[in-house]
Amino acid sequence: MKIIVEKDYENMSKTTMQLLLGKMYQDKSVHLAITAGSTPKRMYELLVEEMKEKAPLTNVSYYNFDEIPIGDEKYGVTIANLKAMYFDPAGIPEEQIHMLDTKNYLEHDAHLKEVGGLDAILIGIGEDGHFCGNLPGVTKFGDETRLVSVQSRPDMFDILLGEVGGDAEKVPEYYVTMGPKNVMQAKQVILFANGKKKAAIIKKALQGPVTEDIPSSIFQLHPNFTVVLDEEAASELNR
């Protein structure tokens, strides 16, 4: 495990961008799974500026690692956010974007195996220790890419309600996520987090026991695990 602690959110975002660019600027096909959410917002702003100054990196294929469908809309929550934050502003062609959704999830793992696996996966961490769509109470470390039912946890409806903008009619019966087993097969796992509110879970995930109660604790076992934090998120670690 390599832990990088930067002074603040801005510097953490720059460092994470540089880690991704180090993968992207290779003279070979590169396969990256990337995250949506609030943490990467500044990183994507920086990355968009970088992409505008460079020739299109046609060697890079992008993947989402989870998806919550929204009614009959073409794009689910994750891809819609990635398009808004990065794909569209950076001019990423659709043929370089490989969407995981509830319709094609059964082919997803086979496709990744066929292309040689993910070179890196960029993930965040929830305050409960979840990553991707792997929540405590509904996740086993051996889980692969799968559908997760709204019935799987008593509070799952409320969780998904917040993700689809508060419209109860748009809450799906299932969402899809890569499982711990698939994510652990990536050649590099990059986890980043910022803010004091993440400090407690960062300590548990990185320095506590490896347990399904804290799904992200499994990355302690990954041979190439990089963590990028700001000082607030790292404030409870034993360093």
From TrEMBL:
Residue span(s) of domain Glucosamine/galactosamine-6-phosphate isomerase: 14-220
Listed CDD domains: GlcN6P_deaminase (cd01399)
| Keyword terms | Carbohydrate metabolism, Hydrolase
Is Secreted among the key words of this record? no
Annotated InterPro entries: Glc/Gal-6P_isomerase, GlcN6P_deaminase-like, Glucosamine6P_isomerase, NagB/RpiA_transferase-like
Q: Which GO terms describe its molecular function?
A: glucosamine-6-phosphate deaminase activity
Q: Which one Pfam family would you cite for this protein?
A: Glucosamine_iso
A GO BP term, please?
A: carbohydrate metabolic process
Q: What is its EC number?
A: 3.5.99.6
Its name, as the record gives it, is Glucosamine-6-phosphate deaminase
Instruction: Tell me the lineage of the source organism.
Output: Bacteria, Bacillati, Bacillota, Bacilli, Bacillales
